[in-house]
Amino acid sequence: MLVEDDPSIAELYSMKLRMDGYTVHLAADATTADVIFQQAAPQVVCVDSRLPGSSGRGSAERFAGAGAIVLLLTNDQRSYENPPPGVARSLLKSRTNPGQLSFAIAQLVKGARRP
Q1: For the purposes of burial, counting CB atoms within 10 Å of the CB of 113, is it exposed (0-12), middle (13-18) or buried (19 or more)?
Q2: Across-strand partners of 50?
Q3: Is the dihedral of CA 48, 100, 37, 109 positive or negative?
């Protein structure tokens, strides 16, 4: 699942992830993300740290607590260096292109499958 309120970024990232074989559920806010998370139970959740009306950091922490692999996307240096508890990795959006996001997800999923 990709939780991103900027439609152009969401489309760009989701297009690359789909090309790489991932099923992508999009949410533009925390409320929609919570509903999709309950319905789809995604293995990996990429969350923007700033969402309209709420903190993406709080969503990231909830999803990680529920067992998802969570990747935090942020333009805030402090959030990048100090992600919420349980977040597997944080990426600076200003330095991350769709290919790098897909690669990071693949590495996290691969690491989760190790015995």
Answers
A1: exposed
A2: 55
A3: negative
Q: Please say whether the beta carbons of 45 and 37 come within 8 A.
A: yes
pTM, to two decimals: 0.92
Statement: residue 114 has pLDDT above 60 = no
Can you point out the beta strands (E) in the chain?
2-3, 26-27, 44-48, 50-51, 54-55, 69-74, 89-92
Query: How would you label 74-107 residue by residue, b for 16+ Cβ within 10 Å and e otherwise?
Result: beeeebbeebbebbbebbebeebebeebbebbee
Report the side by side order of strands in the sheet with 2-3. Answer: 26-27, 2-3, 44-48, 69-74, 89-92
